# Entry
Amino acid sequence: SSQDHGDGSSSERHDGLPKRGVSNTVVGVLGGGQLGRMLCQAASQMAVKVVILDPLESCPASGLAYQHVVGSFDDGDAVREFAKRCGVLTVEIEHVDAVTLEKLELQGIDCQPKASTIRIIQDKYLQKVHFSQQGIPLPDFMEIDNLANTEKAGELFGYPLMIKSKRLAYDGRGNAVAHTKEELPSVVAALGGFDHGLYVERWTPFEKELSVIVARARDNSVSCFPVVETIHKNNICHIVESPADVPDKIKKLAVDIAQKAVKSLEGAGVFAVELFLTKDGQVLLNEVAPRPHNSGHHTIESCYTSQYEQHLRAILGLPLGDPSMKTPAAIMYNILGEDEGEAGFHLAHQLMGKALKIPGANIHWYDKPEMRKLRKMGHITIVGPSKNVVKERLDSLLERETPGSH
Ligand code: ATP
Ligand code: MG
Ligand code: MG
# Structure
């Protein structure tokens, strides 16, 4: 199945036409959520063909992809069939069938980043073991599999104690906090019990959370987007400010740790490195995502090259673009479901109506078929001449009319 076209594009799966535009390689994306949707948007500008694999007929990327194969990215047979259409295979979610990807790689399928990276990252405990072996600073952690060693962890790390699921975690689902030893059994039960695969982390009373998006090209050159601050609400990313308001010394430390973390993983693409900044100026790694990330949405409007275009450039073997900001400041606000069903849609609609009137505000609506509380439905990025201005504009957007304010 691999072909050599004599022009350096060997084993590319393409549309059969002679080379036009920047690349004929068909990009296969496992997952068709909002990240896949925004990858399709970046690809369309360069007429790069993106095919997606997602089980949901009306997933956010469906309408924008060149092709949508309806099937599960967690199913070996579906992924194997899907790979036949793709010149390069990438992910917009890490909860994919990594074992199948490893087998496909052995058969010559080009996965970027590499299957080994997905395998390490999709298990948050394995990820922690990997990064600690690399000498990367992170909160103390420990595997737990019964009440006795969980209580032991509580004695070692103190309370509150962060308990996390090893797998299938996102938006804080899979995390729970025990405040006392007595709470341990119920918190473990709430996470599905020990059979589910759990570990604990020492609570980190961070001053701020930071994120660095690192891109690595196929030639191993590395390029970083500006350090941003992420503000979470109920464990879910809520607001992102770019650039982060921290001293240069901290930015450098964050970038150094992020680069070191990414260099320990294999393959091309963008990687998001989530970090904690402690009160005493330490930077600790929280976790890495092997794909575009919520903390990089703002790059669409605020950077010369967005994280989505950068990911495509990286996996297609094109030169990396300029990740620096072309606007002095940006702030991103996630539109999270505030209510179920129609009531939730109505609130989001009202908010976007207001945003349409705010200078520098850019609306992204993911077109998810169902509205649920705390679900990421869209986002708004406001760019402007200074940090204060974009913050004021966001404040004016979020100002809600309170009863009795007339
Ligand atoms: P994501 O959607 O980013 O994949 P996730 O479900 O994998 O999220 P984490 O990144 O582990 O969850 O944690 C979510 C948030 O919970 C963090 O951004 C941070 O605000 C808080 N948190 C996580 N670990 C700790 C810790 N050890 N101490 C204090 N707070 C923590
Ligand atoms: Mg995570
Ligand atoms: Mg996280």
About this structure: The longest strand covers residues 208-216. Residues 139, 162, 164, 169-175, 201, 203-204, 209, 232, 235, 274, 286-287 surround adenosine-5'-triphosphate (ligand 1) (CB under 6 Å). The chain is about 30% helix and 25% strand. The CA atoms of residues 217 and 318 lie 8 Å apart.
